[in-house]
Fold these 2 entries.
Entry 1:
Amino acid sequence: MSPPPDHAIVIENLCKTYRSRDGKERPPALKSVSFTVPRGSMFALLGPNGAGKSTLINVMAGLVVKSSGRVSIWGHDLDDDPRQARRAIGIVPQELNLDPFFSPRETLEVQAGYYGIPKAERRTDEILEAVGLADKATAYARTLSGGMRRRLLIAKAMVHNPQILVLDEPTAGVDVELRRHLWETIREMNAHGRTILLTTHYLEEAQDNCESIAILRHGALVACESREGLLARLTDKVVEVRFAAPLAGIPPALAAFAPVASGADRLAFRVTRGDGGVPALLNALPNCGLAVADISTTEPDLEEVFLRLTREDTERP
Ligand SMILES: Nc1ncnc2c1ncn2[C@@H]1O[C@H](COP(=O)(O)OP(=O)(O)O)[C@@H](O)[C@H]1O
Ligand SMILES: [Mg+2]
């Protein structure tokens, strides 16, 4: 057997342009997207609605035909070796497409049959246990809650024991409690060595759970790096100073710091982290002739990176 690849997924110059019913080309949904997902990682593909996330996932799933580019899954080219590529990946689609009259156990058994897995090698009950559906094994799918259906879809994607699990918006429309449970399930699978690629438009979920993050915007990749790398892109932080009395104007001693009034009695300063900006400001404050009541600082988070990278008023494609 060949050794496992360093990259679970390699995407190179992937392009997709859909056609409308009358055959006209629509604006491109994917524009020469390239990135790699390291083996064993927990990787988030982030982007606002319509950014192209599902299109990318559906190309991997064989549901959408790409216009051009190359996709390699576990070392198997999707065009040259589609069967091997599909074997290595389990995909949980965004839509909850389950047969309502099948129980979770039947759903997994049918899927195992589809993959030609002999009865003796099936792990149906083990998988149901892993996603927390063991006690619902024989219930009709239509009686399951939204969160349970989502977990059943994850179970279905796990039937052929793929190296890679891909989840398209796994937590969309799921309540807080179930969301936490879903994340536990996903993290557990990652801890067992499985590579996870997931899409989400919930930023804080990517920030909390994923070490690598790619950001799509209008079909183009605008960032792809470690969570720490993304956060380090933000070199500013905001220092807010509240004074003991309302201000008549910006004190001359502070004018060089270009503050903006953030309230009648307060000023906000954007300073560069780590280059002496904060000490310089603190040294200047006693010279402004006003009593300081409070100081607070705000560290940037991924939301700010995301907003900057996806903001509509930057250049459009
Ligand atoms: N089957 C389709 N036919 C035509 N256009 C589509 C189809 N699926 C998606 N699109 C378009 O492609 C773009 C990307 O959509 P999608 O991949 O669903 O984004 P996301 O999953 O990030 O919300 C959107 O403009 C969407 O309208
Ligand atoms: Mg989508």
Note: The radius of gyration is 25 Å.
Entry 2:
Amino acid sequence: MKTVAICSGKGGVGKTALACSIAAIIAGDQKRVLLFDGNLGLPNCDVYCGIEVGCTLGHIVRDGRELRDAVVPTKAGFDLISGGSGWKELAQLEGAEIDALVGDLMVLADTYDHVLIDCAPGVGNRVFPFLRASQGLMVVTTSEAASLMDGYALLKNAWDVNPSLTAGLVVNHVGSPAQGRGVASEVQGIVGQFLSQELEYWGSIRHDSLVARACAERRIFASAFPTAGPSQDLVDAANAIMGLGVEAEATEEISMLGRIKSVFGKKTEDSEDKAA
Ligand SMILES: Nc1ncnc2c1ncn2[C@@H]1O[C@H](COP(=O)(O)OP(=O)(O)O)[C@@H](O)[C@H]1O
Ligand SMILES: [Mg+2]
């Protein structure tokens, strides 16, 4: 459960700002984290992280270079692969070429504990390849009707593309955590009723002008203002991502122990039979 696509139906809801902060929080927990800017040709992660990137996805695609050449470390402790801003080579990528890029990303993912993909907004062939390769989907929405509608449409498509996705909702720009929970439980109800799927709630992030200020100053919000309300909210979302699959792994371990016990138990019984 290491790859999580960060998506939204509607643009401008805070995906990139939240992605950079969550990557920083998870890296602060001594995990190896890769943030991949999947908004091909229109990247923002480098801007919000405040770094200049020499080799971007644009260079990788144009020059046929290895994806690992585009990995740059950030001050916040995670690695970033940045898209190339305005590169037509990225804007014009076809489905099969995006699939190949995602394949390379999955090979690289082996060297990380968590991979976060900051996707383009909306649905379609620029997002689906990332959803197919992910185990988790973080859907970011605000409490506005249009954003919620588009978030629902995204979910509907996402589970068509990859039925095994574990999806979690993050409600951004809320006035209070209670407001976020209220919005989430309504969406969860609708998703359960009409899509027969379980949507997890990964938290809500308070609206705070400090977030916009940090982005404008090209600083990662959670690193610049670690004690501010939205940073605390972001820790919950980061924990939800870090907790993904942990239960499943524990169950696998238990069943592995069960198998070992049954093999050794059988051997012990066999030798007791022989001894008798
Ligand atoms: N919780 C928040 N409070 C205040 N401003 C926010 C918050 N989350 C995001 N923003 C601001 O909203 C704007 C859009 O965010 P961005 O991450 O670029 O959205 P997206 O990636 O979804 O297009 C940015 O200026 C960002 O600083
Ligand atoms: Mg963005």
Note: The longest helix spans residues 246-275.
